[in-house]
Amino acid sequence: MSALEWNRLRAPQLRSLAKEDTIVILPVGSTEQHGPHLPVQVDALLATEVSLGAASRFKPEGKALVAPTLWCGLAEHHMDLGGTFTLDHSTYHSLIHCLCKSIRRHGFQRICVVNGHGGNIHALHVIAAELKHELDLRILVCTYWTLPEVAKSFDEILEKQSNVRHAGEAETSMLLYLKPELVDQEALQKADGPLDLKMMGPGSYRWQSFKSMSPNGVIGCPSAAYAEKGAILLDVASKGVCRLLKDQETWSD
């Protein structure tokens, strides 16, 4: 069953959907370096695909509509490695506010922001709290790989790393499934990076560029990736988001 997509509909159809308590899914990602083997669109592409997969599974319990993807986010930490667009916090804050206000003004009451980029997480949590009170809006932020059931399944499926990391086994597998023509198959065999970020310990924070933690821009093991694994990971992520949307507790005040 295909997903409802905002950009493929006409204004009268969208007005009708707003009256049916349709959930609007807003995918947000980033355009940033993903090592020597993956395209810079990874985060936006995966957020979109997970959103479409979740929306297509939502019927018959209700309707979920996928809005156009916000392809740019907070990615200053990737700038040293090239290929990256980034926004400052005030601009990102304004963009998310304006998009959600537009959705709310059209009569939609529930929004799920499906996030595909780690650098967006903290800002989105703050913005969602503001929008909840400012617009009397039921708004949810979901970073798909952090959902407990999804994270557990990812760890069981992945062979050489845990969870998503960056341009590693998980993201490379999903890209090999979705857009194999955009993956440099030769480069990925030599692109393995550290298995984890070397961050400061609990209770402290210092900004670090990604390049200082991984010179090639990779965290994880892309050499362990293959397309069939990517299909399974995407299915797990889409089902996880769909379960979240269907759960009445998700939307209760």
From TrEMBL:
PANTHER family from the UniProt entry: 2-AMINO-5-FORMYLAMINO-6-RIBOSYLAMINOPYRIMIDIN-4(3H)-ONE 5'-MONOPHOSPHATE DEFORMYLASE (PTHR35005:SF1), 3-DEHYDRO-SCYLLO-INOSOSE HYDROLASE (PTHR35005)
Signal peptide feature range: none
Cofactors, names only: Zn(2+)
Pfam families assigned to the protein according to its UniProt record, in alphabetical order: Creatininase (PF02633)
GO biological process: riboflavin biosynthetic process
InterPro entries: Creatininase-like_sf, Creatininase/forma_Hydrolase
Keyword Zinc included in the entry's annotation: yes
Keyword Metal-binding: yes
Native organism taxonomy: unclassified sequences, metagenomes, ecological metagenomes
GO MF terms, alphabetically ordered: hydrolase activity, acting on carbon-nitrogen (but not peptide) bonds, in linear amides; metal ion binding
Protein's recorded name: Creatininase
Keywords of this entry: Hydrolase, Metal-binding, Zinc
SUPFAM superfamilies tied to this protein: Creatininase (SSF102215)
